[in-house]
């Protein structure tokens, strides 16, 4: 487990930082102490009002990572071609409302896209610090001024824990969506920063080994389809999908278990 502390941005954030440190069972780092000089710590969960960000420690660390649904990149993603492919893969338009269980929520970008496409999304994230980032992103959106953001995020519900142990969620879902970890090819700075975060928080070897288990688990749940996001050229391992939807860098492997309508 990475060594992470909770750090308040200002004295006014001290109480919230304290309660998060208890909740997440992480030590508290003094407000104002310089992260670049920390040697025993790998990262700090930075508390500034409602928003949280994760900042890596040490000299030359990449910039902070946060879940900000109002950011330009999220708005830009909305118009991206991959969204249409993701919507097609899960079956948007075949049933209303379409209930999707995103069993590997991560930084919740795909979940947000799905909610923007009108789906009711249950998000599961098993890493408590990543789940705390999502929860803060959702709280900021719901408290904000933007009616579009509020509307989209009102269709999202977050659960912290292993999706396989939150047993009644599949019965309330039409589709299970999986986006397991995959090796980084993307050289953009923002993506590299997020991957550095995932590598810090998650031990990538067990993560890779668990991918097949998760797909097997998903395909035995009472849902109409399972969709797994994969790198475009990754080999199919284990189950053959019913069909694939291919984008420029990723593909969606679709496992149709029964009709959605
Ligand atoms: C590649 S990230 C997902 C990125 C996400 N699709 C997005 O748009 O930001 C994979 C995430 O799944 C989580 N995860 C993996 N297995 C899980 C499980 N069994 N239950 C819940 N979360 C899981 C990991 O902790 C990690 O945060």
Order of helices and strands: EHEEHHEHEHHEEHHEEE
- Please describe the biggest sheet, giving its number of strands, its sense, and whether it closes into a barrel: 7 strands, mixed
Radius of gyration of CA atoms, rounded to a whole number = 19 Å
CATH topology of the largest domain: Rossmann fold
Number of strand elements: 10
Annotation field: number of helices = 8
Q: What is the end-to-end distance? A: 43 Å
Number of domains: 2
CATH class of the largest domain: Alpha Beta
Helix fraction?
25-40%
Strand content: 15-25%
CATH architecture of the largest domain, by name, is 3-Layer(aba) Sandwich
Low-confidence blocks of residues: none
From the spread of the alpha carbons, the general shape counts as globular
Give the neighbour order of strands across the main sheet. 6-5-4-7-8-10-9
Helix and strand content put the structural class at alpha/beta
The bound ligands are:
S-adenosylmethionine
Kindly report the name of the CATH homologous superfamily of the largest domain. Vaccinia Virus protein VP39
Helix-strand layout with pairing:
Blueprint: E1 4-8, H1 14-24, E2 43-48, E3 51-56, H2 72-78, H3 81-90, E4 99-102, H4 109-116, E5 120-125, H5 128-143, H6 147-153, E6 156-160, E7 175-178, H7 189-201, H8 204-219, E8 225-231, E9 243-246, E10 250-256
Parallel strand pairs: 1-2, 4-5, 4-7, 5-6, 7-8
Antiparallel strand pairs: 2-3, 8-10, 9-10
Helix pairs in contact: 5-6
The structure holds S-adenosylmethionine (SAM).
Describe the structure concisely for a colleague.
The protein is of the alpha/beta class. It has helices at residues 14-24, 72-78, 81-90, 109-116, 128-143, 147-153, 189-201, 204-219, and strands spanning 4-8, 43-48, 51-56, 99-102, 120-125, 156-160, 175-178, 225-231, 243-246, 250-256.
């Amino acid at each position: 487990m990475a060594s992470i502390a909770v750090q308040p941005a200002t004295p006014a954030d001290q109480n919230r930082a304290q309660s998060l440190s208890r909740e997440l069972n992480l030590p508290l780092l003094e407000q104002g102490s310089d992260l670049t000089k920390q040697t025993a710590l790998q990262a700090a969960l930075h508390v500034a009002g409602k928003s949280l960000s994760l900042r890596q420690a040490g000299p030359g660390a990449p910039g902070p990572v946060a879940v900000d649904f109002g950011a330009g990149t999220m708005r830009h993603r909305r118009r991206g071609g991959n969204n249409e492919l993701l919507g097609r893969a899960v079956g948007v338009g075949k049933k209303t409302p379409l209930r999707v269980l995103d069993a590997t929520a991560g930084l919740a970008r795909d979940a947000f896209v799905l909610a923007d496409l009108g789906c009711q999304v249950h998000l599961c994230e098993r890493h408590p610090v990543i789940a705390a980032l999502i929860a803060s992103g959702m709280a900021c959106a719901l408290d904000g001024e933007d009616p579009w953001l509020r509307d989209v995020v009102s269709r999202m519900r977050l659960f912290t824990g292993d999706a396989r142990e939150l047993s009644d969620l599949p019965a309330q879902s039409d589709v299970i969506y999986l986006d397991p970890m995959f090796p980084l090819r993307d050289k953009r700075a923002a993506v590299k920063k997020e991957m550095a975060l995932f590598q810090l928080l998650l031990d990538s070897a067990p993560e890779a080994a668990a991918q097949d288990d998760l797909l097997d688990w998903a395909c035995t749940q009472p849902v109409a389809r399972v969709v797994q996001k994969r790198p475009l050229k990754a080999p199919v391992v284990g189950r053959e999908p019913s069909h694939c939807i291919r984008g420029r860098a990723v593909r969606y492997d679709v496992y149709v278990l029964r009709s959605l309508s």
